[in-house]
Amino acid sequence: MKIIPANKKYIKEISKLMLKELENPNDKFPVDLISKFREHAKEDSISMELDNPNLISFLAINNHELIGFIVGYKEESNNTMIHHIAGDKIETKKLLLNRFIDECKKININNINADTFEFMENNELFKEEGFILTKKEKITDDLEMLWYEFNLKI
To answer: Model's pTM, two decimal places?
Structure first.
């Protein structure tokens, strides 16, 4: 497996991977939220994201096949926000996250922010990789978004 910078060659595969994740969403997710995620997973939306100059994104490729990706954006005050991380295995996600962290260090980012939900695999990933839970945001009566931060200047 190799980790490469994101590029438009893999738009179709990124879309398929995102849509596959949305095939059987957790019942706690509101229907309108899943609809927004599906809209975001369309190839034209992904293409526009890849044109964003603030994008920090990497792909995990194995035998010329996309098996994972991470997408984040530089924000004000030398911060980044991870918007999506996906992979065929937790090990793939860890490699992508570590490559993202390395890139952030190179470009003098101070903090990496991320969000997830308690029941998602990424929740455990962020905790294992040293991210600190900073807040919980109630989305519905039985769904909370968890916000994490990773300080690169400590």
So the answer is: 0.93
